[in-house]
Amino acid sequence: MSEAVLKSASPNQQWTLPSRGIVGMTCLIIAEAAIFVIFVVAYIFYIGKSLTGPTPKDVLELPIFTTICLLSSSLTVHAAVSSLQKSKQRLCSLWLAATVLLGGIFIAGTANEWYDLIYKHGLTIRTNLFGTTFYSLVGLHATHVVVGLILLSLALFFSMRGEMKEEHSEKLEVLSLYWHFVDGVWVIVFLVVYVLGR
Amino acid sequence: MATQIPVNELHDQIAHAPRRLWLEVLHDWVTTVDHKKIGLMYIAYALFFLVVAGFEALLMRVQLAIPNNHFVSPEVFNGLFTMHGTTMVFFVGMPILFGFGNYLIPLMIGARDMAFPRLNAFSFWISAFAGFLLYFSYIGGSGLYGAGSAPDVGWFAYAPLTARVFSPGHSTDYWTLSLLLTGIGSIGTALNIVTTIICMRCPGMKMSRLPLLPWIYLVMSGLTFVAIGPLTAAQIMLMLDRYVGSHFFDTQAGGSAVLWMHFFWIFGHPEVYILVLPAFAFANEIIPVFSRKAIFGYPAMVAASVGIGFISLSVWAHHMFTVGLGAGGNTFFTLATMIISVPTGIKIFNWLATLWGGKIQFTASMMFAIGFLFQFLVAGLTGIMLSVAPFDWQLGNSYFVVAHFHYVLVGAILFMIFSAFYFWYPKMSGRMLNEKLGKWHFWLFVIGFHLTFDLMHVPGLLGMPRRIYTYEADRGWMMWNLLVSSGAAIQAVATLLFVYNMVWSYFKGPIAGPDPWDAWTLEWSIPSPPPSYNFAEIPTVASRRPLWDLKHPDDPDSDYEMGQADPHETQKEGA
Amino acid sequence: MLVLAITAAIFLIVAGILAYVLVRYRSRASNGHGEQEPPQIYGSNQIELSWTVIPILIVVMLFLATTRVIYTTEHAPRPANALDVTVVGHQFWWEYRYPQLGVVTANELHVPVSDHAHPLPTYLTMSSADTDHSFWVPRLAGKMDLIPNKVNTMWIDPQMNGLYLGQCAQYCGVQHAKMLIRVYADSPEEFAAWVEHQRQPAVDDPAVTEGRSVFMHNACISCHTIRGTVATGRFGPDLTHVGGRETIASGSVPNTPTNLREFIDNPANFKPGALMPPMHLDTHDLDAVTAYLTTLK
After folding, report:
1. Interchain CB distance below 8 Å, B349 and C51
2. Among A120, B45, B125, B313, which residue has the fewest nearby CB atoms (within 10 Å)?
3. Considering the domain C83-188 in this protein, what is its CATH number?
4. What is the ipTM metric for this complex?
């Protein structure tokens, strides 16, 4: 009796389920967000509590240019996905290249900022609580940006070789979700570190 | 496929294929991405560590049986309780529950595998590696004061004890790294579970027809995402403090020891719900089958499980009532903790209502499930006692707390895991476990469990704190500790019986067939053990219990979807 | 008591129902199969609502009662004559300072006994010099943690004379188990006498000059204080009146000359992992310094 065959799918029924890539990436984003939240909480908790050393007001400048670059890169990656969905492969490559470039500028800007902080202002991760929480939070974000850039560069590489087609657009969309997340985190970090904390 | 072979013949061909070399078999298992094999590896791995961590517990109980004992040194004892706790939570609890989930979820939703099979394999192997890294510390590390080698900072590794200055060796580092790695594995598996359930259900299986086990695993996986992150973050901070000179938990630089506690328990409390929710999931499948009734109140069960998931994120500081949070903080966390008893109570009542009016079959599996019900009730009640902050001021960090959480972990979760073994072993292996041995296992274990953990509440009430390698003779704790220790020995014997049963039955047990329990979810519609492709044809379902509908075609569940209107209308006679 | 009553009642009711159900509804067929299935009941809105609402009411009641206890304990009004003691936790001993009285001691806490009519509680202001600790004397009060870089306060109000035992209740390292607490609730006269005595600088008995010299010329002075001498170390317990204590090694070893000698020779004899290193004194010096410390009553 238990061997009885259950009804197989009837052809006229619609049974569509969400895309695995998007659901999976959303889960990953939630998990990563939880990690970032804790670093943000630590940052906020320790505002004003350093016993010594430079304070945010002393050394931080608003990174307006790099922020604009990073946030625009969300627009460009979105454009890349749309282009691929319309089978415009060369346009997709262009937008991907723009995204990588803008992301690269952000990282270069961060590196420059850190160079100044370390060598001109003497702020390192071990200087005081501000140094600890600043470098860890901004550094964690920057690491995620770098990972994203590596993946985007890979995508760009395949796209330039003409190997990325319209049927891959969902995979690119999943990657773009990650990139939007990274940009979203930057909005929070920017507000907490450079606006609230100073 | 080159030729079209009818499914049954293909199966026979596989069954009669020539025996393969053991190297081929090994290669097959090491490289597999099949959710069933991965699930079995998780389970076997967890059982191995259950024995190891159980042995660590036995050593501790020998040391504590009499006051001022010299069975093990303080350093070794401190390592034992740290390793016992860490192993049981991360290398027994999580893997065994992920293992069952991995095995059962695709089968229950009519899918051929998990959503990301390679991620599945990766998650398993990284967790497996983490376990061996932790135990490598016994031979590789150097602990507190250079004596001993394994982690010895307690499973919750409070700062600043874990700072370089107080823990100069590598014991803390082994703890941190192995848990970081297994956390990655946990997130991977949880991601797989969520994606599988949302994206791979068979046609007709709307979320409202999803069996309760996948529902609860969905909640548990969501909790995993939100809970493991804080632990990972805190551990990164700890490593930065130890090696790069940062000051997250460095009280000399203005850092806060309490911050570690907050971060750890923001992880730690949801973690115990991650461990207990699958036990609820098993109960939701097993109790109805052996009561011969559908689960009572399916929508409430879903809502209660989701509610428990959310509320569990808000109760963490009930582990910190003695830290000096202030009256406001203590009050808030008391309230949140008490509130969680409401959905939990609803679940217990629903199980009772499922039993009520049923025809209860006392198989070994069911007996463990009943043990779970009783013990979970008691554990919940001692939990309510502890949620009262002033009560916790006396009994927090004492053996009363140890007794409470072991009541949940062993009395509820482990009992339900045993129940799940007796229930699903036939499906996984094709053979039945021996019922008589099962009942011996049950009774021995119940006696040992109650001897140990009922009595353990008393030393706590008499003032015995936890994590002490010995105690003074003049406190009146000796008799209780001695009895507690003897119960541990009985549980060990019972567990060995269980392991023997599993091994013996694999070779000599009666053949199970696809549906030995006359159950109702999809996994019972395929052969035992299932073929690698699970379902010859992906099924379509029309209710929560597709096999009930098949077996009772005149009165299917699909007539009674979603617990409609009137109680009278929702009642009917079985076929 | 309310908590116990509620939980006991819930236990009896629910366990009772469980027991009843198991007996009443057990399957009576000789084999599991072939029996008619019982009526399938899927739910009942009324019943489910009632067992949601009633627990909520119980929770509200319990919560309100608990909140009242939390606030009356934490915000208890402090009488003007309350005694202040500063407690500093160390790995693996307790430092006690009485700021109003100018007394510093270790491991054995003396407080005046109180009574309902004329309350004389002792307020403990607590922190830690190293890792987390917790002060727990069950028969006096609940526990409170000692956390570095944080100050916690609690009060005790012993109503009966006597010795109250406790120990550290937060894992603090290797010898957490031997960080014992002894609280002596003295009558007012006894307490006043004790305070007066503790305020005196160390006894200077000429018979043990040699031992005193051993102490002052060794590393002892870098960790210990003996008031009235050059020893002003703060890392270890104050030894000014160590001879008068009933125990050493934070309550874990009776204070006899033999034990004291063995401890000084190598603390690991009693407390492996204690932060005091073995002093490597030769037999003669060891005897002399033990004799000296024994006179510090």
Report:
1. yes
2. A120
3. 2.60.40.420
4. 0.93
